[in-house]
Design brief:
- The protein is α/β, with parallel strands linked by helices.
- It has 2 domains: 54 residues, 2,3-Dihydroxybiphenyl 1,2-Dioxygenase, domain 1; 97 residues, 2,3-Dihydroxybiphenyl 1,2-Dioxygenase, domain 1 (Roll).
- It is built from 4 helices and 7 strands, in the order H-H-E-H-E-E-E-E-H-E-E.
- The strands form 2 sheets. Strands 1-4-3-2 form a 4-stranded mixed sheet, with helices on one face. A 3-stranded mixed sheet has the order 5-7-6, covered by helices on one side.
- Strand 3 and strand 4 form a beta hairpin.
- The longest helix is centred in the middle third of the chain and has 13 residues.
- The relative contact order is 0.18.
Length: 180
């Protein structure tokens, strides 16, 4: 038996879990707050929610993504986890891959697990991994490299998407904080 579980007060063990509300946010480390703001707002289209000297947060894909410049731990090379995934349609997957390429941000090849869905990885400038997941309808998905049911396996070279420099978009989006 696990002592951490056995040592709980009896009333806590009796109460059980509580129903959680909807997912609110995830926070990731960043090497430079201005660079992260540019990436999440200008490249990915996020909407500013919080902006302080050491932390910022954007609304992206229905979730809040925070990024902090202090008290952080960065991903190690060759790691896929943790990563943040967004679902997209076939046209959006192709469009975002082209846009990231235009911004000189490397992306993985398209890959699949079952020959129906299409997946793609990219990183933010601080090395955090993002996945785009297209459930169905992406042309050629049946012929993409196959990964295992969990993880990318050998379908993707996860280290090939690391980078130090990238091209910031010429047009900058609003940095005005938009309240919930």
């Amino acid at each position: 038996m696990n002592p951490a579980i056995d040592d709980r007060p009896a009333d806590a063990a009796q109460a059980g879990p509580v129903p959680l509300g909807k997912f609110d946010h995830v926070s990731v480390p960043c090497r430079d707050l201005e660079e992260a703001t540019c990436f999440f707002v200008d490249v990915l289209g996020g909407e500013m929610r919080v902006s302080t000297p050491i932390f910022a947060e954007v609304r992206l894909g229905g979730a809040n993504i925070g990024f902090g410049a202090q008290g952080t731990t960065f991903m190690q090379p060759s790691t896929e986890y943790p990563h943040i995934a967004f679902t997209v349609g076939p046209a959006e997957l192709a469009q975002l891959k082209a846009w990231l390429t235009q911004c000189e941000i490397p992306t993985s090849n398209y890959w699949t697990r079952f020959g129906v869905e299409a997946l793609m990885f990219f990183r933010d400038p601080s090395g955090n991994v993002f996945e785009l997941y297209c459930h169905t309808g992406f042309p050629g998905a049946e012929s993409f490299p196959r990964g295992p049911a969990a993880g990318h396996g050998s379908a993707v070279d996860i280290d090939a998407i690391r980078y130090d420099t990238w091209k910031r978009p010429a047009i900058r989006r609003s940095r005005e904080v938009v309240p919930d």
